[in-house]
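Workshop exercise sheet. Pairs work together: one partner reads the sequence aloud, the other fills in the structure field after running the prediction. Swap roles for the next sheet.
Pair: D.N. / O.F.
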Amino acid sequence: MSVGKSVKGRGALPRVIAAMVAVGALVTVTACTNGEAQITPTRLLQSVAVGVTTDAAIQSVQSTTIAIGNSPSETTSETASFTPADVANDIPVRIRTSYRTADSSGTDLGDLKGYSGRVEIDVTVENLTVKPQELTYDAAGQSRTREALVGAPLTIAASTVLGGVAPSRVVIDSDTDSAVTNGVLSRSDDGDAVVQWASLLAPPSGRASSTLTLVADVDDFSVPAFDIAVQPGISTDPSIGGVLDAAFNDDPTSQLALQRRTIEVVAAVNEVLGRAGTTITEVRTNLESTADTLGVRTARELADSTTSLGTSMRGLTAQLTGLQSDLSTTVNSTNSAVLQQLGSALSAVDGMLGDTSAPPPPSIPSGSGCSATSTIPGEANTIYGNIQRLAVELDNYASAADECKGEVQNALRSTIGPDAPSTDTCQTPSTTCALFSAQGEVNATLAELVVDGRELVDSLKPELMSSVVTQFDKTSQAVEAVQAATKKVTDGLPDGSVPQSLGEVSTALDTLSGSLGSLNSALSQVNQISRDAQAELGNPDVRGSIREQADRLADEICTLAPDDDWTPPGGGNEPTPKPTSTSGTGGDDEGSGDSDAKSSSSPVVIGGPTLAEVDRLRSFLTSEGCEGDQLSTPWGYSAPLLDRLKADTAAWISVDEKTQPSGDLGTAITGLLDQTSKVRDAVNRISSSAWNGNENLTALVTSLTDSTKALADQRTELDQRINALKKQQDGLGPSIERAFADADAEAAKKVSALIEEQVRVISARGKTDAATIGAMFDRSVSGLTSTSTDIAQSGKETVESQRDDLTAAGEAISQSVSAQTLSSLSSISSSIGAATRDTDGASSLLQADLNKVLLDLGDRQVNGSGLLGSMVTSAAKVDTADVQLALASQQAQGYANVRSEDVAGILLQQAQTQASLEAGAKLPPFHIEAPAGAATQTVYTFRIGDGK
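Structure field:
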């Protein structure tokens, strides 16, 4: 933890954001100056500003993109706003907030406003790019694939200014285990505390989330704003300069480029250091051995020579002769050692090639057909042994493929089904039987619909409507009788016969009342029939109704359409089924299939009618296709069956409404009854006036005449409504019957023709595919058998040829070594003989040079003295370099040395790290389309709260 007096030099985030805004404004002005010319961007810098509330909810997302063309003078910028709910899942990080005080805790920092005391605020930034990924890496000579977490590395920088809080009030250390501020503390120009954070989210080696902690003792706390910048990739410079450098600087010597190159080079350091350490160790050993050998032998020989020179010059000749003999012996010994080493090398190579007379290894088969597996016990340690194992596995594969062919053909024939499906031949599920069954279901449903339609028409009871008409006719005759009787009353005024005529009016009214009652009863029966018809027709949501049955039939027709994911045999890219071959004593159960898979209640229809053909059948029933398309009504029909049934239902609803007591007809009958009562009242008044001698008899008769006329008008209105009802109901029955009859005749005919055609097509296709599969397996088996034989024979010939070549080369090398040895001895003998021609002259020269040789040779015990001392010193220096390299290697391979027992785990982590770097390089920009080849850099900035 460090505390500074100023924020200068720390790359405070508010200044970074201000600089970015300034650059954006500058580029915008430049773009406007260029007249909004269209450019082809080569580099883009995008800044995504995310507004976050004090409880970490995203409330605004804005993007500013700066683009540079081929020339630095070609610039443009673009600003966009997004709906947070639409783009929240595309932001690579998640922000979470929480706080704790002595009194409470929560996630909304706004709750801390006005608080006095110690507050602890945590802002957690989580890397959301971490996802499981299949990784492939090499370990112990084998390629391995494993699922591991991989995430793009992100560089995080954040800061906040605590207004009104002195730096001394920020808790940066504690004697207890209580939380402290984990950022860099400094002071602003106004004396307020400033806290700066920086973190690298680089899984798997690094963390996937980082928590920024702020602990302070406050008084009347004003919740500050937290500014966070997230830059994809690994960067040590999160400032605006670093961002612009990453986006627009392609110099290979730039800081960011050097960092990326350094990361790539680190992977090669371990191998280089290891090789360097090994090489220097060998150099050190050779120098020490040479110094020991050269010092001892040379000193001894020079001492012998000195003694011989002091005794007699003749001794020198003897010593030289002895030296020649020693050299000859040494050369012969060296010759034998070389030949021995050569023989050992040849034997090792011969053992690695293997014995070509050995029989092939046995294999243990298990299973049969397409599920066959084989296991070859033991291990192959020679080249020819591995070739034999490969040949055995190919033979096993050929045998299993030949057996698998029959299984595949039989399964294909069983899946397709019989050529002529029937009830007898369709005992097991198949494609043609499924089509046959579907045809039967569709035809049965169509027939059932027709029967239901006829039953509905029969239930309409046309005689009831005839009864209504008959009762109305009687009512009309009764009204006419009332009119005739009323006319007699009017005609009887002059002669005083009014009382006698009133009796006829009363009788006619009684008859009219009875007729109206009978008419009302007949209409009630018609109303009940309309309700029964509505219930029978129903709607598509009512189980058991005619419309539901027709709708279900339309859905059943859609099941005849083929599966989009099905690929015809021989026409797809599926690999040939193969047996599993494993080495060693264990087996592998993978590929054995899912034994818990649930079988479908009906077979999958392979092939079948096309969607267009199925929709043509469905168009007889509905105007909506199987995939929601609008269908055209077949020629010769006014509308599909469901639409016509819907119209008939609406017509019955109209009949129901008209025949209800509150309907048109019920209202008319009620009016007619009311008017009958008014006529009866008028008759009663006239009768009373005639017996009492009332002089207003004429006026009363006139009132009776008007009431009778109104009664006739009500009769006329009722007549019109009954005629309209009769016409509507007369058309309902034939309409329903025609709708069902048309649907049954045409749809059944087309279903039968279509399915019979598809059965023929599928059956023919199945036979062709079965033959194709058989030929494919035959070719595969033949090729595998031939390949196995060729590999075994070719491998044997190659190994034997290599062994012959190796033997010949060994003999040639041995002869060459012997010849070189003899040549070297002859050269040495000639050289020594030439050197000892004048022993007297050589004596004085040797005596003078002897002291120089001893001085030049030096002492290996005294570092730096003569040749031997220099060699010892060099060996020591090499030893020092070896230690330094070992330390460097230890530092570079720290983690690998700790986990040396799990090399595979280390290689997996290396693969994770490499994949993370690649994921960071491929991280896409935020909701913009970048041109192909354009370099992009996206920076996300988050502002939590408004700091007020």
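Discussion prompt: The chain has a mean pLDDT of 68. What would you look at next?
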